[in-house]
Design a protein that fits this description.
Two copies of one chain form a homodimer. With 87 residues, chain A is of the alpha+beta class. Chain A has a single domain, classed as Alpha-Beta Plaits (2-Layer Sandwich). Helices cover 29% and strands 34% of the residues of chain A. The first copy, chain A, is built from two helices and five strands; from the N terminus they run βαββαββ. Chain A has helices spanning 14-24, 39-52, and strands at residues 2-8, 26-29, 32-36, 59-65, 71-77. Chain A has a four-stranded antiparallel β-sheet with strand order 2-3-1-4, covered by helices on one side. In chain A, helix 1 (14-24) packs antiparallel against helix 2 (39-52). The radius of gyration of chain A is 13 Å and the shape is globular.
Chain lengths: 87, 87
């Protein structure tokens, strides 16, 4: 599945969230990661995220699209990371 | 089409970007909007965004998915906005 993750976490927890996202996905913009994950990887990722965030304050939003070829991306302005859904 | 927009713009331009996004989409998280747009609305939205950002500094990333029912969302922690792809 193709996954887009956007997070809004307390600044002091950002480094751990960033590190966890980097382990599974690639960075595309500030607080945004994307990538292709298997069901097992997705499960491991969400388990890892739950360990580093405070669910009473932080928010991590995950979009899952089963068919990555259906996702088109466009960037207006600076292209910070690689946003191609198919790598 | 179902659209997810994430932006990283200079703080002083954020209010205009926010206002433009709100006109076409709904807010789901800090710097993240989503919604269903027609081709014409999408064109108007990107035209409006280009007018308020500085493309040499800001970044606005747009994901387009033609079939919104293929998008699943999950939130870990706080659910800030309405993330249902089908409203």
């Amino acid at each position: 599945m193709f996954v887009i993750v956007v997070y809004d976490t307390l600044a002091e927890r950002n480094p751990q969230v960033l590190k966890t996202c980097r382990r599974y996905l690639h960075w595309v913009q500030r607080s945004v990661f994307q990538g292709e994950l298997s069901t097992a990887q997705h499960r491991n990722f969400t388990t890892a995220i739950r360990k580093v965030i405070d669910p009473t304050y932080d928010s991590v939003l995950i979009y899952r699209i089963q068919t990555p070829t259906l996702v088109e991306t466009e960037t207006i302005g600076q292209n910070l990371g690689n946003t191609s859904p198919v790598l």
